[in-house]
């Protein structure tokens, strides 16, 4: 899994700050076939929901005006799963308590959402429909993906686009880890709660 790809031109977008939300999160929300996420930290992520009925969802106030209503990304994933979208999340640390609580309230999603843990996962990527890829520093958290206010979000940077070569390489790495291809010889195997090659 050690490699350096030969230099070649890429057509990618540089994504920073709120751009993560606008480009990466929205791409995942609009998925038609699949969403593959790799993240070290996995937390509940609240996303704007302009369709929410007034008074039914929590709102955020900006100045004197009420901004968009919010809902959990897991609600969006529940809708995607119901339409047959494949949902995979490869993560290192256990999901946050709010993430687990929201998932527990959605049994159909809990059956459809594939979660796999590997303590060595530290790369961050989002692959949507095998046609869009994000590679960068942002974990799957509100602070990482620009869903928090400007003074509360992390300083993150990444690249997004639909370069076939990059998509192929990132999907290959992701799938190898997902299937346990990196488990043999792993020096953390003895402390790993569930080696992926035993699934």
Structural summary, described in words:
By secondary structure, the chain is of the alpha+beta class. The chain contains five helices and ten strands, in the order βαββββαβααββββα. It has helices at 19-29, 73-82, 97-104, 107-112, 164-178; strands spanning 12-16, 34-39, 46-48, 59-62, 65-72, 86-91, 114-117, 124-128, 132-136, 157-161. The strands form two sheets. It has a seven-stranded mixed sheet with strand order 1-10-9-8-2-6-7, sandwiched between helices. The chain has a three-stranded antiparallel sheet with strand order 3-5-4. β8 and β9 form a beta hairpin. The longest helix has 15 residues, at 164-178. The radius of gyration is 17 Å and the shape is globular. The two termini are 21 Å apart. Residues 57-66 have low confidence and may be disordered.
Question: Which keywords apply here?
Answer:
single chain; 7-stranded mixed β-sheet; 26% strand; alpha+beta; 10 strands; 3-stranded antiparallel β-sheet; 199 residues
Summarize the structure.
The chain is built from five helices and ten strands; from the N terminus they run E-H-E-E-E-E-H-E-H-H-E-E-E-E-H.
Beta percentage is 25-35%
Low-confidence stretches are 57-66
Report the span from N to C terminus.
21 Å
- Average per-residue pLDDT, rounded, comes to 91
Instruction: Give the overall silhouette.
Output: globular
With strands numbered from the N-terminus, the spatial order across the biggest sheet is 1-10-9-8-2-6-7
- Helix and strand pattern: EHEEEEHEHHEEEEH
Q: What's the story with the biggest beta sheet? A: 7 strands, mixed
Helix-strand category: alpha+beta
- Gyration radius, in Å: 17 Å
Based on DSSP secondary structure assignment, what is the total number of beta strands? Answer: 10
- Percentage of residues in helical conformation: 25-40%
How would you classify the quaternary structure?
Answer: single chain
Tally of separate helices: 5
């Amino acid at each position: 899994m050690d490699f350096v790809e030969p230099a070649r031109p890429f057509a990618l977008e540089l994504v920073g700050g709120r751009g993560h939300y606008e480009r990466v999160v929205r791409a995942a929300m609009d998925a038609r076939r699949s969403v593959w996420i790799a993240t070290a930290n996995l937390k509940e992520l609240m996303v704007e929901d302009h369709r929410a009925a007034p008074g039914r969802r929590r709102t955020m106030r900006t100045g004197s005006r009420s901004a968009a209503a919010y809902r959990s990304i897991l609600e969006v994933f529940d809708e995607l799963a119901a339409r047959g979208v494949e949902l995979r999340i490869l993560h290192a640390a256990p999901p946050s308590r709010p993430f687990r609580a929201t998932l527990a309230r959605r049994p159909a999603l809990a059956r459809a959402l594939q979660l796999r843990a590997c303590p060595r996962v530290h790369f961050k990527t989002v692959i949507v429909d095998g046609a869009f890829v994000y590679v960068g520093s942002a974990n799957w958290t509100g602070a990482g993906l620009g869903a928090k206010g400007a003074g509360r979000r992390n300083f993150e940077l990444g690249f997004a686009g639909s370069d076939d070569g990059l998509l192929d390489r990132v999907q290959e790495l992701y799938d190898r880890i997902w299937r346990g291809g990196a488990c043999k010889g792993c020096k953390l195997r003895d402390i790993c709660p569930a080696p992926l090659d035993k699934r």
